């Protein structure tokens, strides 16, 4: 009877240990899968943030290009006005030269 009881106790102990091992492996696999999902979510968020940063960079570059275009247009307009002023002064000088009353 003692031998039979010892065998039963050993079998139960082995079964309990096997059940614990299976449960721990299952829990470990679940934990690993949760970490994988977290990594996928983080990568997805990082990609979305990168795309938003790229969009903002493109907008800033476009705004800078428009500003440069406006600066050049203003500079060209200023040069045209200066040339026109010079031509007007030349006309006044010429009028003064040909005016017999001056």
Gyration radius (Cα, Å) is 44 Å
Sheet bearing the most strands, described? Answer: none
Globally, the shape reads rod-shaped
Number of helices: 1
- Kindly state the percentage of residues in helix: over 70%
Name the features.
102 residues, mainly alpha, 1 helix, rod-shaped
Describe this protein's structure.
The chain has one helix spanning 2-98. It is mainly alpha-helical and 102 residues long. The longest helix is centred in the middle third of the chain and has 97 residues, at 2-98. The termini are far apart.
List the helices and strands and how they pair.
Layout: H1 2-98
Short description:
By secondary structure, this protein is mainly α. The protein has one helix at 2-98.
């Amino acid at each position: 009877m003692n031998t039979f009881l010892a065998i039963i106790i050993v079998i139960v102990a082995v079964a309990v240990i096997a059940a614990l091992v299976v449960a721990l492996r299952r829990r470990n696999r679940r934990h690993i899968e949760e970490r994988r999902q977290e990594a996928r979510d983080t990568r997805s968020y990082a990609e979305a943030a990168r795309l938003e940063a790229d969009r903002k960079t493109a907008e800033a570059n476009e705004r800078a290009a428009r500003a440069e275009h406006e600066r050049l247009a203003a500079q060209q307009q200023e040069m045209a006005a200066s040339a026109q002023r010079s031509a007007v002064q030349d006309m006044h000088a010429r009028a003064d030269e040909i005016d017999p009353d001056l």
